[in-house]
Write a sequence for this structure.
């Protein structure tokens, strides 16, 4: 993971004041797929866990 | 231009959708016509009711529109008040973390109701009854499917970056919030965090890569084109989940702090300690206080004596470990009347932000009914070279009454302070202490603490003190 991450000291010092918002929005859309996958994976796991939980409850 | 009805809050001017103002001593929030659709959605969707019922959002009542600025106002709200306005640089690690988690929980619930948070400053979170509460009713807007989270940058700067720095670099870095009013710049956080955090997916993305993206696209037109790409609801929920797990993973343990073992290690005998509690309790009963500030409260032992009497008590200490332990106990015990906060009395929170008034100084958030200064005066006078007269003046500005403990020179704690330095304090004795404090106070009672040379005083201040802009209120 290290190779694409910035070294803190390489970052320009005070550029962020120009418009820190653009980079923040772009970062979100660039990795939207990853967030979506995480969310759907977690939702599916919750559903599976819920079903298994109900199954055991019924058998108890 | 129309006159504003009443005095507008010095912290409320950035949001064009409304502002907070005070009239006849009552705090109101004007909602402008520009916020009409979002305000109606907040109420009619049931989101407001659900958040208030769970104690996540401050409640308000809608009052007479006559109070509003003509032509601009849609509603005037009278919000419920919090007992004391505090700021992120005064919070312990867990207080900060709870504020972050509340913000994310509100964002997640807002999405369920078709809304989203449009800003995420840490200043929107305050404490009430020992728990975090969101105070900005105008931070909600209708969620538009496909758009990224506009408050993502602010969340990372206001919450994730300071918490990561406190947890992984040094807990004292919460003071960066004091110098950076819009949160810790991510490029700065990226520099200060340990290199190993580049291997943590959450911090690698939300801090390091985020900082790089901000720098690379500052002012660039390319970002605008790219941001037209869709960012679905699932992605937004995933982002909130990812941020939440990042925050939950951050921990900080106080360990053995300088002061946390104070009660155990001092020369107080059990009898002396319980007598001290009794006398403080008697003095508090005598003055019938509703609000108190306990200065140098350690982990809040004597704040609890005040709180047990229904007194709203802000429990200040300069040691992040003590404040952390105090807050954990507040949460564990459900203490509604104790509010632990971090404060260096020698350099109390100043007025900061726009015109030095956006965030109130400590002094302007007083005065309170009573100030507790127990086992404190020797630290100010001897460790910090403050003249007794100046200490008396300062304490008189903070509160109407004072319960103060004089610690004599032959006390083991003072001897410890003097062990490594020359004794340049010939004037530090009880007579001089009383003489100096009589300039500002009437001494109503005093009581020696057994098995020690210490003396407790109850004093009533003289002179006027005007209420500050964020005065403590009983609740």
């Amino acid at each position: 993971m290290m190779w694409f991450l910035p070294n803190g000291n390489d970052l320009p010092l005070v550029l962020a004041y120009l418009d820190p918002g653009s980079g923040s929005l772009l970062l979100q859309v660039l990795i939207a797929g990853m967030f979506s996958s995480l969310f759907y994976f977690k939702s599916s796991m919750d559903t599976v866990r819920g079903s298994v939980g109900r199954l055991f409850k019924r058998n108890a | 231009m129309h006159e504003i009805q009443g005095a507008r809050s010095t912290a409320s001017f950035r949001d064009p959708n409304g502002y907070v103002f005070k009239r006849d001593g009552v705090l109101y929030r004007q909602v402008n016509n520009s916020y009409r659709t979002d305000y109606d959605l907040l109420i009619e969707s049931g989101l407001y009711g659900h958040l208030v019922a769970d104690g996540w959002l401050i409640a308000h009542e809608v009052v007479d529109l006559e109070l509003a600025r003509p032509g601009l106002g849609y509603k005037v709200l009278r919000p419920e008040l919090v007992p004391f306005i505090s700021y992120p640089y005064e919070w312990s690690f867990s207080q900060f973390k709870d504020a972050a988690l509340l913000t994310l929980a509100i964002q997640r619930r807002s999405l369920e109701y078709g809304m989203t948070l449009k800003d995420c400053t840490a200043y929107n979170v305050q404490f009430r009854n020992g728990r975090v509460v969101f105070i900005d009713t105008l931070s909600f807007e209708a969620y538009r499917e496909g758009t990224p989270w506009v408050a993502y940058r602010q969340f990372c700067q206001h919450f994730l970056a300071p918490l990561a720095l406190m947890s992984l670099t040094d807990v004292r870095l919460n003071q960066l919030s004091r110098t950076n009013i819009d949160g810790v710049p991510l490029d700065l956080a990226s520099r200060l965090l340990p290199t190993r955090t580049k291997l943590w997916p959450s911090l690698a993305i939300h801090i390091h890569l985020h900082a790089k993206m901000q720098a690379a696209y500052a002012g660039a037109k390319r970002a605008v084109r790219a941001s037209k790409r869709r960012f679905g609801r699932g992605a937004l929920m995933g982002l909130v989940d990812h941020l939440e797990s990042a925050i939950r993973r951050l921990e900080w343990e106080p360990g053995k702090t300088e002061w946390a073992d104070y009660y155990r290690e001092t020369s107080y005998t059990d009898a002396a300690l319980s007598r001290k509690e009794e006398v403080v309790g008697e003095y508090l009963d005598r003055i019938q206080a509703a609000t108190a500030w306990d200065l140098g409260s350690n982990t809040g032992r004597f704040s609890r004596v005040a709180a047990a009497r229904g007194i709203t008590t802000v429990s200040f200490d300069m040691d992040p470990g003590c404040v952390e332990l105090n807050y954990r106990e507040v949460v564990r015990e459900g203490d509604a009347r104790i509010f632990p906060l971090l404060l260096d009395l020698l350099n109390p929170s100043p007025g900061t932000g726009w015109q030095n008034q956006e965030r109130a100084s400590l002094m302007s958030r007083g005065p309170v009914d009573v100030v507790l200064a127990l086992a404190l005066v020797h630290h100010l006078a001897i460790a910090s070279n403050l003249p007794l007269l100046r200490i008396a003046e300062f304490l008189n500005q903070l509160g109407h009454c004072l319960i103060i403990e004089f610690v004599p020179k032959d006390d083991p704690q003072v001897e410890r302070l003097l062990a490594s330095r020359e004794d340049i304090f010939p004037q530090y004795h009880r007579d001089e202490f009383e003489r100096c404090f009589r300039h500002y106070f009437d001494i109503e009672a005093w009581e020696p603490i057994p098995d020690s040379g210490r003396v407790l005083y109850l004093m009533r201040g003289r002179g006027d003190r005007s209420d500050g802009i964020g005065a403590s209120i009983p609740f």
Q: What stands out?
A: Chain A has two helices and no strands.
